[in-house]
Amino acid sequence: MAPDQDGAFYGPKIDIGVFDALKRNFQCATLQLDFQLPLRFKLTYSAEDEAKLERPVMIHRAILGSVERMFAILFEHYNGKWPLWLSPRQVIVCSVSFGSAEYGKQVLARLHEADFHVDIDISDRTIQKKVLPSSNRSPGQDGTAQPSPAHLVEAQEEAHPPCLLAVAAVRPSAY
Protein backbone atom coordinates (compact mmCIF):
# COMPACT_ATOMS: atom_id res chain seq x y z
CA MET A 1 0.00 0.00 0.00
CA ALA A 2 1.18 3.52 -0.68
CA PRO A 3 2.62 5.56 2.16
CA ASP A 4 0.58 8.58 3.27
CA GLN A 5 2.86 11.12 1.55
CA ASP A 6 2.54 9.51 -1.91
CA GLY A 7 0.08 10.82 -4.47
CA ALA A 8 -1.48 7.40 -5.07
CA PHE A 9 -5.14 7.69 -4.23
CA TYR A 10 -6.96 5.45 -6.68
CA GLY A 11 -5.92 1.98 -5.50
CA PRO A 12 -3.33 -0.24 -3.83
CA LYS A 13 0.25 0.26 -4.94
CA ILE A 14 3.48 -1.74 -4.82
CA ASP A 15 6.76 0.18 -5.02
CA ILE A 16 9.99 -1.69 -5.70
CA GLY A 17 13.12 0.03 -4.47
CA VAL A 18 16.78 -0.50 -5.32
CA PHE A 19 19.98 0.65 -3.64
CA ASP A 20 22.74 2.54 -5.42
CA ALA A 21 26.48 2.28 -4.78
CA LEU A 22 26.15 4.66 -1.81
CA LYS A 23 23.40 2.49 -0.27
CA ARG A 24 20.69 5.09 -1.00
CA ASN A 25 17.23 3.73 -1.69
CA PHE A 26 15.53 4.67 -4.98
CA GLN A 27 12.08 3.74 -6.21
CA CYS A 28 12.52 1.79 -9.39
CA ALA A 29 9.35 -0.06 -10.37
CA THR A 30 5.73 0.65 -9.49
CA LEU A 31 2.59 -1.43 -9.86
CA GLN A 32 -0.77 0.09 -8.99
CA LEU A 33 -4.39 -0.95 -9.27
CA ASP A 34 -6.78 1.69 -10.56
CA PHE A 35 -10.49 1.34 -9.82
CA GLN A 36 -11.37 4.93 -10.80
CA LEU A 37 -10.47 5.26 -14.51
CA PRO A 38 -12.60 2.30 -15.67
CA LEU A 39 -15.51 3.87 -13.80
CA ARG A 40 -14.81 7.31 -15.30
CA PHE A 41 -14.59 5.94 -18.86
CA LYS A 42 -17.59 3.68 -18.30
CA LEU A 43 -15.58 0.59 -19.24
CA THR A 44 -17.25 -2.80 -19.00
CA TYR A 45 -16.79 -6.31 -20.26
CA SER A 46 -19.12 -9.27 -20.43
CA ALA A 47 -18.56 -12.00 -17.90
CA GLU A 48 -18.32 -15.69 -18.69
CA ASP A 49 -22.07 -16.16 -18.92
CA GLU A 50 -22.38 -12.96 -21.03
CA ALA A 51 -25.50 -12.01 -19.11
CA LYS A 52 -23.77 -9.70 -16.67
CA LEU A 53 -21.47 -6.75 -17.39
CA GLU A 54 -18.43 -6.41 -15.15
CA ARG A 55 -16.20 -3.41 -14.42
CA PRO A 56 -12.50 -4.01 -15.21
CA VAL A 57 -9.59 -2.93 -13.00
CA MET A 58 -6.70 -1.12 -14.66
CA ILE A 59 -3.10 -1.89 -13.75
CA HIS A 60 -0.58 0.92 -14.05
CA ARG A 61 3.02 -0.19 -14.20
CA ALA A 62 6.40 1.43 -14.55
CA ILE A 63 8.85 -1.45 -14.62
CA LEU A 64 12.07 0.58 -14.72
CA GLY A 65 10.85 3.88 -13.34
CA SER A 66 12.20 6.74 -15.39
CA VAL A 67 14.87 5.98 -17.97
CA GLU A 68 17.04 8.71 -16.46
CA ARG A 69 16.87 7.15 -12.99
CA MET A 70 17.63 3.69 -14.38
CA PHE A 71 20.74 4.95 -16.20
CA ALA A 72 21.87 6.92 -13.16
CA ILE A 73 21.66 3.79 -11.01
CA LEU A 74 23.53 1.72 -13.63
CA PHE A 75 26.17 4.43 -14.05
CA GLU A 76 26.82 4.54 -10.31
CA HIS A 77 26.75 0.76 -10.00
CA TYR A 78 29.38 0.29 -12.72
CA ASN A 79 31.30 3.44 -11.70
CA GLY A 80 31.13 4.71 -15.28
CA LYS A 81 32.91 1.61 -16.64
CA TRP A 82 30.16 -0.09 -18.62
CA PRO A 83 30.21 -3.87 -19.06
CA LEU A 84 30.65 -5.25 -22.57
CA TRP A 85 26.92 -5.80 -23.16
CA LEU A 86 26.04 -2.19 -22.28
CA SER A 87 29.05 -0.22 -23.46
CA PRO A 88 28.61 2.15 -26.43
CA ARG A 89 32.18 1.24 -27.46
CA GLN A 90 32.70 -2.44 -26.75
CA VAL A 91 36.20 -2.97 -28.16
CA ILE A 92 39.12 -0.84 -29.30
CA VAL A 93 41.58 -2.42 -31.71
CA CYS A 94 45.09 -1.06 -30.99
CA SER A 95 47.78 -1.37 -33.61
CA VAL A 96 51.39 -1.79 -32.56
CA SER A 97 52.73 0.33 -35.43
CA PHE A 98 51.65 2.06 -38.63
CA GLY A 99 52.95 -0.93 -40.62
CA SER A 100 50.48 -3.23 -38.91
CA ALA A 101 47.46 -0.92 -39.16
CA GLU A 102 46.09 -2.84 -42.15
CA TYR A 103 45.66 -5.99 -40.05
CA GLY A 104 43.96 -3.89 -37.36
CA LYS A 105 41.50 -2.61 -39.98
CA GLN A 106 40.71 -6.20 -41.00
CA VAL A 107 40.00 -7.09 -37.37
CA LEU A 108 37.81 -3.97 -37.07
CA ALA A 109 35.81 -4.99 -40.15
CA ARG A 110 35.27 -8.56 -38.87
CA LEU A 111 34.10 -7.30 -35.47
CA HIS A 112 31.72 -4.82 -37.15
CA GLU A 113 30.31 -7.71 -39.19
CA ALA A 114 29.67 -9.54 -35.89
CA ASP A 115 27.67 -6.49 -34.65
CA PHE A 116 30.20 -5.25 -32.10
CA HIS A 117 30.68 -1.51 -31.54
CA VAL A 118 34.37 -1.18 -32.35
CA ASP A 119 36.92 1.60 -32.82
CA ILE A 120 40.53 1.46 -33.91
CA ASP A 121 43.55 3.32 -32.57
CA ILE A 122 46.30 3.46 -35.19
CA SER A 123 48.08 6.45 -33.67
CA ASP A 124 51.80 6.47 -32.89
CA ARG A 125 51.21 6.44 -29.12
CA THR A 126 52.67 3.63 -27.06
CA ILE A 127 50.51 0.61 -26.28
CA GLN A 128 50.56 1.58 -22.61
CA LYS A 129 49.01 4.97 -23.42
CA LYS A 130 46.46 3.33 -25.71
CA VAL A 131 45.34 0.77 -23.13
CA LEU A 132 45.99 2.07 -19.61
CA PRO A 133 44.25 5.29 -18.54
CA SER A 134 46.35 7.90 -16.79
CA SER A 135 45.55 8.30 -13.10
CA ASN A 136 45.76 12.09 -13.08
CA ARG A 137 43.63 12.84 -16.17
CA SER A 138 40.25 11.93 -17.48
CA PRO A 139 40.28 9.09 -20.03
CA GLY A 140 40.59 10.34 -23.57
CA GLN A 141 42.29 13.64 -22.72
CA ASP A 142 45.91 14.34 -23.60
CA GLY A 143 46.43 11.05 -25.41
CA THR A 144 45.31 8.72 -22.64
CA ALA A 145 43.31 5.55 -23.17
CA GLN A 146 39.66 5.75 -24.17
CA PRO A 147 37.20 3.94 -21.90
CA SER A 148 36.26 0.52 -23.25
CA PRO A 149 35.57 -2.87 -21.67
CA ALA A 150 38.23 -4.48 -23.88
CA HIS A 151 41.21 -3.53 -26.02
CA LEU A 152 42.57 -5.87 -28.71
CA VAL A 153 46.27 -5.31 -29.29
CA GLU A 154 47.28 -6.72 -32.63
CA ALA A 155 50.76 -8.10 -32.88
CA GLN A 156 51.24 -8.82 -36.57
CA GLU A 157 54.93 -7.97 -36.58
CA GLU A 158 55.79 -10.24 -33.65
CA ALA A 159 53.77 -13.31 -34.62
CA HIS A 160 53.21 -15.27 -37.80
CA PRO A 161 50.35 -15.81 -38.44
CA PRO A 162 49.12 -12.50 -36.98
CA CYS A 163 47.50 -12.71 -33.56
CA LEU A 164 45.59 -10.56 -31.09
CA LEU A 165 46.14 -10.00 -27.39
CA ALA A 166 42.94 -9.23 -25.48
CA VAL A 167 43.30 -6.69 -22.68
CA ALA A 168 40.18 -6.57 -20.53
CA ALA A 169 39.34 -3.49 -18.51
CA VAL A 170 40.18 -3.87 -14.86
CA ARG A 171 37.08 -2.93 -12.91
CA PRO A 172 36.95 -2.89 -9.13
CA SER A 173 34.13 -4.97 -7.75
CA ALA A 174 30.89 -3.04 -7.50
CA TYR A 175 29.57 -5.30 -4.76
Automatic annotation (TrEMBL):
One of its GO terms (cellular component) is chloroplast. Keywords: Protein biosynthesis. Pfam families: tRNA-synt_2b (PF00587). GO terms for molecular function: ATP binding; threonine-tRNA ligase activity. Residues 7-78 form the Aminoacyl-tRNA synthetase class II (G/ P/ S/T) domain. The keyword Protein biosynthesis applies. GO terms for biological process: threonyl-tRNA aminoacylation. InterPro entries: aa-tRNA-synt_IIb, aa-tRNA-synth_II/BPL/LPL, Anticodon-bd_dom_sf, Thr-tRNA-ligase_IIa. SUPFAM superfamilies: Class II aaRS ABD-related, Class II aaRS and biotin synthetases. It comes from the Eukaryota. Belongs to the class-II aminoacyl-tRNA synthetase family. This is Threonyl-tRNA synthetase.
